[in-house]
């Protein structure tokens, strides 16, 4: 059971400010800034609602409880280590900084003076001219310098921050997004006021709401172990903390030496610097674990990781520790970043990776991640091509239950990570691919309502036609220069609508590619009014696949039989583009 020294009510002004102990986010126990526009917008809406209610004078609206914070307080030390509550305190500081900058930008003596006071009282100050800056909220190593450069190191002379460090991590961009979002929202509100005096009143009331109206419950604990237990208990009941954060806290807790904790931080730097979005880090962690241990669902990932690793870390003697796991994680992160961005440096392999991205075939990444740990990318070319055929035939066209495919692929990834031969896994993948007869039957009936998948299928068939017709101009998948067109339109005129309209509009036989951006008005026309778009197209899938058979010229109506016939023609190409296992076996 965790030891709690005390739990007490604290306003924002009592947590951060010139007369309070400095709040520090420890390097070994917290995450980087993670609030997106969604969370920032909700925070702002709550503040505005609270401000309006507070100004009504109702006693029940005097305070706004924003949640608990967990701190580690040691009697012999100054300051507080913040284990939970970073997102709310950081966002509050960013909003205070936005108020500061808008006040200074008004250029009035009162505005500049108030801005300076806000900086000194709630963000940072120097106790003497030659003394170092004292920051009232100190973030962890991942965001510390950037937060100082863009939010805290503010000049009373210029009214600007130093902005030395450029944004290099997802959290850095989120900090800037939050700041710009707040500035925009405040500026919009100030447009309602003509006089500077009224604007000053609004800004002062907003500051007052934040400093004296936002209320937290600070849960003080004597040690990091107690704080971690409280931390996990609180966050297991909500969505405030991610699996990535929980895993890092767990590893730091289990680290037996400074060296091991350094390895954890090194691994996390790789994660933060190697991925553009936080969602990619979350996805990587699950795929990394799946590649080694088989399927595990996102909601139970942390519990599974903690249970499994604890069994290793607590063994005596310890054969597999925090440092070894962190090193594996760091190595896999680099390979995974190459896989999801298609930047391995091998042209053919990267082209196949772009196909996976175009289909959103994320289930294939754990297998490729596992395989790439012991083989070069050229050695994995057959594996990736066969896996794509499997995914297209089973999921995209066949519309079969994806669970079985995932079970197969994840089990193969686990086998590879535990020493199975690549050849043995390849034979399994070949056997999972639906045969030609099954694939053709599926293709003849296939509807592809998802534009990204339809675009992928049509683009691959276009590339196939160009190769057969010796057309060397390259068509790049996902380059934005072509779009999917419904030949029989999604919104036809009433007199031309087919029976069972929804059954035919997304059929593959009714889909093609056209260059340029989609013109909704043009795409809704009857065939005679847009026939030239197809016959004169530089894209062979539009010019050479008998699109004109979809239109009954004699009776002036669309033909279901034409959709079926064209789909059968495309099926012939598809059998060659996505072959069954016999091609490689």
Please tell me about this protein's structure.
There is one protein chain. The chain is of the alpha/beta class and 585 residues long. It is built from 25 helices and 12 strands. It has helices spanning 12-15, 37-55, 86-105, 109-123, 144-152, 170-190, 196-213, 224-235, 243-254, 258-274, 278-293, 301-313, 322-341, 347-359, 365-372, 381-396, 402-417, 422-432, 436-444, 451-468, 501-505, 520-523, 531-535, 540-543, 560-577, and strands at residues 6-11, 23-24, 64-72, 80-84, 124-125, 134-135, 137-138, 214-221, 482-486, 511-515, 551-552, 557-558. The strands form 4 sheets. A 6-stranded mixed beta sheet has the order 1-8-3-4-2-7. Strands 5-6 form a two-stranded antiparallel sheet.
Task: Explain the layout of strands and helices.
Layout: E1 6-11, H1 12-15, E2 23-24, H2 37-55, E3 64-72, E4 80-84, H3 86-105, H4 109-123, E5 124-125, E6 134-135, E7 137-138, H5 144-152, H6 170-190, H7 196-213, E8 214-221, H8 224-235, H9 243-254, H10 258-274, H11 278-293, H12 301-313, H13 322-341, H14 347-359, H15 365-372, H16 381-396, H17 402-417, H18 422-432, H19 436-444, H20 451-468, E9 482-486, H21 501-505, E10 511-515, H22 520-523, H23 531-535, H24 540-543, E11 551-552, E12 557-558, H25 560-577
Parallel strand pairs: 2-4, 2-7, 3-8
Antiparallel strand pairs: 1-8, 3-4, 5-6, 9-10, 11-12
